[in-house]
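Exercise 7. Given the components listed, write out the predicted structure of the assembled complex. Treat all entries as one system.
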Amino acid sequence: MKKNKDEYKLKLTGNYLNQYEAIEQYIECSDSMYNKKEECLEEILDLLLTAQVNERLPEEVIGKDIKTFCDNVLKGINYHSSIFYIAVRFTAISFTALIVGIIFMVLYNVFGGQGTVVVRNQVSIIFTYGIALTTGLFDFLIDFYFRKQIAKNGKNKYIKFKGEIRLALVVLCSMLFSLLEETFVKKYTTLPRMLLIVVITLLLVAVVDCIERRGGFDGLNGSSYRKSKDRELLKTALYLKYEKKSNRNIRKNKVYSVEYFAKKQKKEIEIGHVMQCILFPFIMAEVFLCGYSILAKELTSGIFILFILILGLMVINIKLILIKKTQLKLLQEFCEERIDKENRNNGE
Amino acid sequence: MKLEESQLMKGILEGCVLAIIAVRETYGYEIISVLADYGFTDIQDGTLYPVLTRLEKKELIICRIGKSPYGPKRKYFNISEEGKKYLEQFKKTYLDITLRANSIILGDGGKYEKK
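Answer.
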């Protein structure tokens, strides 16, 4: 998808390309979901390409102020409230902290170091959440700085170093926090506590997402763009599956009706949902518990994590439960269309 | 005060965009072009985007992804049944309000007598 977009981007020339790249950088530095950003960037690319072909100035279609343009676009694509995006950012950061913690713990276990950051199977709470908070803060500040720069001067050539700048600052901070460890009272956290924070954040994200999708906050129910995309995909998949199964049965000289296909498909949807809603979280949690037991050798807290994880993943899977209705409706539509088509063919 | 920022414009723009979409299936660039042809040169895609999203959220328009002759893909907009009803209602309300407002703002607004 990215390659495709970049190929089209090369068709833009001069000011059209400069404006597009500035918009691309500004949107990439803003809070939104990745797929939404990609979706709107593709649309803006098409808009500028159309303007270029029709010899209309970029200012005529996007205006003179990039910041106003991008803020309006973001207002349009962000279906969720800002709390949702903050929660997503915090989840990502918590995971980073968790991974950093695990790396330190593994290194300690492997090399048996006597550092202040790790003591036996425990990681310092000041260190872990110090990194998480500073990463979050730097992430926010770097994005804010680049957005300001782009709004003022247009395309920024230093934005490609954004990741490296953030990494350098985080490394510096982690060094600072390990030094601070010696001055402050040492408090240590085990993996379950760190995981609990991540799971609670995940739960919050999932709950907010579900409520918003069900029309709770702003009376929204997802964009019709997304709905049409999902529907298209699901319907195409149904057609392909039916064709495949029907051809296989024809080869075997067996009769394969649409009704039979629908019945089988319905059963598959039901089983699939049971799998997604119950078995999948269990399998995930079991795998996680195994990993945890190897690392920490503490089963009691492991069972607690298992329970929290199941709960968290089940909440996330509400999304999948909501799709079930659409899937069944699509199946019915597919059957009706198919029967109509077959009746027409028989009539001819 | 910029034209697109005014509260007055916000409501009217929604009606204008819906009326353009009601004629036939259309896309962002075409809507901007039609608006510019009618003198709304200040309306750009950034202004249009939230309007289209609002209409989409209210389920007044239906959006589908189609092929574009120039870019990677294009969003096409169609009016929904709900949108058609809303547009009819909007037209009536708009005419009624402008008629009354015109008579005050442009007409005898300054000629009223104190009771």
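Discussion: The mean pLDDT of chain A is 71. Residues 258-296 of chain A form the longest helix (39 residues).
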